Amino acid sequence: MTDQQVPSDLPEPVVRKPRINASFVWLIPVLAALVGLSLVINAWMQAGPTITISFQSAEGLDPGKTPVKYKNVVIGRVTAVTLAKDRSHVTAKVSLEKSAEGFATADTRFWVVRPRIGLGGVSGIDTLLSGAFIGADVGESKESRDEFTGLEEPPAVTHGAPGKTFKLHTDDLGSLDIGSPVYYRRIQVGRVVTYQLDKDGKGVSLQIFVDGPNDEFVSKSTRFWNASGVDVSIGADGVKLNTQSLATVLAGGVAFGAPLGPHDETPAEQGAEFRLFGEQATAMAPPDGEPRYIRMRFDQSLRGLKVDAPVEFLGVPFGRVVSINLDFDEKTQTFPVIVGAVVYPQRLGRAHDKLVALAKARGDDAQLSQMMGRLIEHGLRAQARSGNLLTGQLYIALDFVPKAPKVPYDPMVKPLEIPTVPGSFDKLQEQLAEIVDKIQKIPFDSIGQNANATLAELNRTLKKVNDDVLPEFKTTLQGAQQTLGNANNALSADSPLQQNLGGTVQEMQRTVRSLRVLTDYLGAHPDALLRGRRADAPPERNAPPAPTSTQEGSKP
Amino acid sequence: MSQDLPRADELGLIGCHVCGLVCRDTGAEGAHCPRCHSALHRRKQASYSRTLALLLAAFMLYIPANVLPIMRTASVGDIDDNTILSGVIELWVKGSPDLAVIVFTASIVVPMLKFLALGLLLWSSRHATPWARRQRAKLYRLVELIGYWSMLDVFVVALLTALVRFGVLSLVEPLPGVVFFGLTVILTMFASMSFDPRLIWDGRESDD
């Protein structure tokens, strides 16, 4: 065993050419390296730009999972979500795909799509199961950018959607919001995109988007109004309730329509500006034209007159009150009320046109002040009238008052001042006061004293009557009684007067009977007057059968 | 005591790996066993370079295997891509620490152990150090033993993909990572196969 003997009969190995070179084994790591390299290159080639989007909250954002989608195609993925240093917002790092490089441009918008339930509807329901994703909307800018501020609300309009954007101006926003619907003939054709306060803070500018092809219904003369409210009107034909859809009543909306009558129908251009009216009626009213400021000076209290109270010209809405101020008149030591109002002469329609034409024809200045001067000459006066007896609200009526006292009028005075007369209610009050005055002037005191004296006199007289006249009266009555007793006796049934009277009456009866017989006879025989009485009628006249037969014949 | 024992090499002998026939070592290239016709070599052919190459390739593939997701689970719209490590973390977090440990051992510990162990074996046999030969031999046997357990993850993905197919409700899809991981495991298995443990003992000084 320990000998280093090798048996000699060991077999010899068979020699064959080796088929593969052992160094081919190095191909494997080379291949692996190639594969790895190709992966790296692939990843590098596919990796698009990395952008950061800041959001108010990271709700629904899941690093590594939350996709970024454009038209529901995944164009990137959130890789990290970090809190900002000042903790005011979160920053989501998103790596876009290579093909989505175009999304890293200046006007791209990003927002988180989450399930949203609002009055206007429900959106993003699919994200309930799949989780939120980031929606993207790319603009046309070529300027690249890698930091974005995410929108908190999905944009109402995506880029490139057919339709037009219009601008609306209004005094206040009302219940409108981003996404509020825009209606045309109660069909939703668009929505509110944004709104902002005007720079001077005197109004709100809204941007609305009307989807194509309905955008062509917005013409240059289209009127927009706020459709959020409920419009209750009481007219001669009953109560009318006018609303848009219930959702609009709750959530607000804008409606538009063409004004009645002939109007410009050329479609409005992109970005055209319109005024947003409070309600349909004002929107549809003819344009107000240039507003004019007028001033009125009332000498009586104007309790119940408020700013925005209407100013009417012969019953036509003409303007509204804009200011009510108290003044002090040193001469009369009174406090007149100065009422400022804005009026729209064009609201008078044809009357205004004709007045202007007339003024021009006469060679006058067509200014309102000139026109008004002539009207005031003819008795135009302002009057505070009660619009509502219950609430005591006043309005200003411009009316022609017959026999109005002449007032000096200077058309050059600015602002235009309209003379006033006391209101109808005030007149009534004055008259009542006069009546009360008159009543007060009646000398109730002396009248009372006189009445008192008279009553004392009467008392004395009555006493006299009681003392002197009554005993006399008693004796007179007794005398009268006696006389009546005598009369009674004379008229009793067995008195001779009575019997005489009975005989006389019987005699008279007999006379009357014979007179009747005579007249009867004469009626039947008028010739008797001339010829004398005829012989008596034959006896059969007294035969009874004829009257009995007629009597029986009448019975059934 | 066995210091004097000669190596077969020294006696001009060569044994067939497959049928065990002992032949005379003629030193010729491409010698084959006269009985079973398998290749004869004193040590595994190019053991060192093969093992190193395979190990390197395996290591290179191990990177994408870990970085890329291996499995996609989709249930009712919720799509979840998991890499090996994120799967382990998810298992741990969602209350199956035992499973997490198993997957972690099979998919992370074992491959890493193999890389380290084979690397160590290669390095030590290259330098023919006499250091801890017995332990190194044991280490090699351990590597051989546990090598294929790493395929666990691949099987899990394959099974789930085949079993969980409920349309929108639930769906499991394999992702490229699992291919790389499978390749890594196979390559490490090849690497440990091509390593000749006799290299451990080739340094002469202390044949204990």
Automatic annotation (TrEMBL), chain A:
Annotated stretches, region: Disordered: 531-556
Lineage, broadest ranks: Bacteria, Pseudomonadati, Pseudomonadota, Gammaproteobacteria, Lysobacterales
Broad class of where this protein is predominantly found: membrane
Pfam families attached to this UniProt entry: MlaD
TM helices/strands, residue ranges: 24-45
Subcellular location as annotated: Cell inner membrane
Cellular component terms (Gene Ontology): plasma membrane
Protein name as it appears in the record: Paraquat-inducible protein B
Domain Mce/MlaD, first and last residues per copy: 48-127, 163-223, 292-400
InterPro entries, per database record: Mce/MlaD, PqiA-PqiB_transport
Naturally occurring in which organism (per UniProt): Dyella marensis
Keywords: Cell inner membrane, Cell membrane, Membrane, Transmembrane, Transmembrane helix
TrEMBL record, chain B:
Record keywords: Cell inner membrane, Cell membrane, Membrane, Transmembrane, Transmembrane helix
Transmembrane segments annotated in the record for this chain: 52-71, 99-124, 145-168, 174-195
Major subcellular site: membrane
Subcellular localization: Cell inner membrane
Alphabetized InterPro entries for the sequence: PqiA-like, PqiA-PqiB_transport
GO cellular component: plasma membrane
Pfam families per UniProt: PqiA (PF04403)
PANTHER family: INTERMEMBRANE TRANSPORT PROTEIN PQIA, INTERMEMBRANE TRANSPORT PROTEIN PQIB-RELATED
Protein name in UniProt: Paraquat-inducible protein A
Organism: Dyella marensis
